[in-house]
């Protein structure tokens, strides 16, 4: 039986075309881009071409693209770097309750050390941040707003352009350059419009490993004139914002992956959306289920469903035995025993959060795969419910 | 049908009972898998056990809940039959299944012996569990003790009903689950407030996830939130 990988939000496989583009940069064009000889120059040209291509997709400039080791580093650099660079301007930061840990954890750390005051905005039952709430939260000493573009667990797409416009207006009304606006676009990069002028963002995180590129490479877009303090000091690469010898194959891989994803996104999004909606409908036909996240404002590949009265991990393991690879929103498997902070933030009870399952589709997903999941899932749910002493009333979950 | 994702290494087979470095993961042992995919003695038809003694522990909000029914020979006080239902992750289901086997094999345990069953005994028979799974999911022995109390209560032998001794949570400071229960009843509803009363976790920080779980459990038990 063909294995069915439905965990593309965790990471995607490397596209063979990306691998081909990267191949020469391991053993042939391997030199250090900072070296002052011909092979070094070749590597430097490759980095420059990649930077140019990425800048074009973001509608930014080449000197606004900073390469990092991935999404987590880009997020850390964005929030910690801005807070420290602007410490004389203010110490207030606004974020949302459903951000990735790569944003929340550094912010909570800065709060703990007393470097910032932190406002964590709630979300509605679909996981949406309210633009009005956000504007109310802004203060004269607010230096940074960080809201993700699309959520990794429930797939909800945030109104980034509206938030960006509201922040621009607030800055104009208050005659200030601050706060800066950062968005984590890791889940969105291969799927949504990345034009920073339309989004009105000052900083934007993306990485390659969610769009069929290699792991270990990311970008932080930093708008010109935005002040940011480096976290990694050394040889002064990346405009002294991020030292370290450039990961040339990774950089080439990221640029190629972004190129391919953006070129194919209209066709692929339409295909995935059809498969997604079929999977949602098929799974919601199982009794006592509920869709987590927004019904329409969601990533084309994300399905997140709570199966009431069962625990997500048990379902993941039963599906695994069928060759269907999914993940759970419940963090039973991680060091924390709490269920997903994202699903809890949408107001769902602990009970329903424990029963949530995420299926994230990708380029390899076929209609047959979706039908197979729809055929297999009722049996898994029935078996686990049969074993479960819990029988909760659905009125609490709608 | 079966598609092993990762070849089970010798370490994985043993389970990371001792420490668990994160990258060794939390693979379940073959015995755990066997009991997870083919659970023994689980309750098919509750109506046939309406008169049986029953015990329940945990709550779905905490991520684990289980119910245990027992039938006992009044003459020998041996457990002749045990059925269960469990809401929880793979190790919760497997450990309850294994507990049911241990309680009923070889003619059935006496209730006195069954009361001495510890989570470690179940784990040993399972071939180990990932470290962070132990406290959250091995509740079968507690549900069994609750069912035994219920049996004695129903049999009118109230002198044989045993109130649970506190379970030590913070081994360094000897703080028990009862201390945490008391603190929650006293109005401490966050980890910080419970720590202010009990200092739990300051001696042995590794118990903090379990403390948070207990706080939530007792909050729900007493305040429904």
From TrEMBL, chain A:
Q: Does the keyword Ribonucleoprotein apply?
A: no
Query: What family is this?
Result: Belongs to the class-V pyridoxal-phosphate-dependent aminotransferase family. NifS/IscS subfamily.
Name used for this protein in its record? Cysteine desulfurase NifS
Cited Pfam families: Aminotran_5 (PF00266)
Keyword annotations from UniProtKB, A to Z: Iron, Iron-sulfur, Metal-binding, Pyridoxal phosphate, Transferase
Xref: PANTHER family:
CYSTEINE DESULFURASE, CYSTEINE DESULFURYLASE FAMILY MEMBER
InterPro entries recorded: Aminotrans_V_dom, Cysteine_dSase, PyrdxlP-dep_Trfase, PyrdxlP-dep_Trfase_major, PyrdxlP-dep_Trfase_small
One of the entry's Gene Ontology molecular-function terms is: iron-sulfur cluster binding
Q: Is Iron given among the entry's keywords?
A: yes
- Aminotransferase class V domain: residues covered: 4-373
The protein's required cofactor(s) are namely: pyridoxal 5'-phosphate
**Catalytic activity annotation:** (sulfur carrier)-H + L-cysteine = (sulfur carrier)-SH + L-alanine
């Amino acid at each position: 039986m063909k294995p069915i990988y439905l965990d593309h939000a965790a990471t995607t496989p490397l596209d063979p075309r990306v691998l081909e583009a990267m191949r020469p940069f391991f053993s042939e064009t391997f030199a250090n881009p900072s070296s002052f000889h011909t092979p070094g120059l070749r590597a430097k040209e490759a980095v420059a071409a990649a930077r140019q291509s990425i800048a074009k997709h973001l509608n930014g400039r080449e000197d606004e693209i900073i390469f990092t080791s991935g999404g987590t580093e880009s997020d850390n650099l964005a929030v910690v770097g801005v807070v420290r660079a602007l410490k004389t301007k203010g110490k207030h930061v606004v974020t949302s309750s459903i951000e990735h840990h790569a944003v929340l954890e550094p912010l909570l750390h800065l709060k703990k050390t007393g470097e910032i005051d932190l406002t964590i905005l709630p979300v509605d039952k679909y996981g949406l941040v309210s633009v009005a709430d956000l504007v109310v939260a802004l203060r004269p000493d607010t230096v940074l707003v960080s809201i993700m573009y699309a959520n990794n667990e429930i797939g909800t797409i945030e109104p980034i352009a509206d938030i960006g416009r509201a922040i621009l207006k607030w800055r104009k009304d208050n005659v200030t350059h601050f706060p800066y606006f950062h968005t984590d676009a890791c889940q969105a990069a291969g799927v949504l419009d990345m034009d920073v002028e339309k989004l009105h963002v000052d900083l934007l995180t993306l990485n390659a490993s969610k769009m069929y590129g290699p792991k270990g490479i990311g970008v932080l877009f930093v708008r010109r004139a935005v002040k940011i303090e480096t976290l990694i000091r050394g040889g002064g690469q990346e405009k002294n914002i991020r030292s370290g010898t450039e990961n040339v194959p990774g950089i080439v891989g990221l640029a190629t992956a972004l190129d391919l994803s953006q070129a194919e996104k209209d066709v692929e999004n339409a295909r995935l959306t059809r498969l997604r909606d079929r999977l949602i409908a098929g799974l919601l036909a199982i009794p006592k289920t509920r869709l987590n996240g927004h019904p329409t404002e969601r990533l084309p590949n994300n399905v997140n469903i709570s199966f009431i009265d069962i625990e997500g991990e048990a379902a993941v393991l039963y599906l695994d035995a069928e060759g269907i690879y999914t993940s759970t929103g419940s963090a039973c498997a991680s060091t924390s025993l709490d269920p997903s902070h994202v699903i809890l933030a949408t107001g769902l009870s602990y009970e329903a959060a424990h029963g949530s399952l995420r299926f994230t589709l990708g380029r390899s997903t076929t209609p047959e795969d979706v039908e197979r999941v729809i055929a297999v899932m009722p049996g898994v749910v029935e078996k686990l419910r049969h074993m479960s002493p819990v029988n909760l009333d659905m009125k609490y979950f709608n | 049908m079966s598609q092993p994702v990762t070849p089970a290494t010798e370490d994985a087979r043993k389970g990371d009972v001792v420490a668990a470095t994160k990258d060794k993961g939390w693979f379940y042992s073959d015995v755990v898998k066997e009991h997870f995919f083919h659970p023994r003695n689980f309750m098919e038809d509750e109506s046939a056990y309406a008169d049986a003694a029953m015990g329940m522990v945990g709550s779905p909000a905490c991520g684990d809940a289980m119910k245990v029914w027992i039938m006992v020979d009044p003459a020998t006080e041996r457990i002749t039959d045990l059925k269960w239902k469990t809401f929880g992750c793979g190790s919760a289901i497997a450990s309850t299944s294994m507990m049911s086997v241990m309680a009923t094999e070889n003619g059935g345990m006496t209730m006195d012996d069954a009361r001495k069953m510890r989570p470690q005994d179940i784990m040993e028979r399972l071939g180990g569990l990932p470290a962070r799974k132990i406290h959250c999911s091995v509740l079968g022995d507690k549900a069994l003790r609750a069912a035994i109390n219920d049996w004695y209560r129903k049999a009118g032998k109230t002198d044989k009903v045993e109130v649970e001794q506190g379970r030590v949570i913070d081994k360094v400071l000897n703080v028990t689950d009862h201390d945490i229960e008391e603190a929650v009843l006293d109005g401490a509803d966050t980890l910080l407030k419970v720590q202010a009363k009990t200092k739990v976790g300051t001696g042995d920080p590794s118990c903090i996830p379990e403390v948070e779980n207990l706080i939530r459990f007792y909050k729900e038990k007493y305040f429904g939130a």
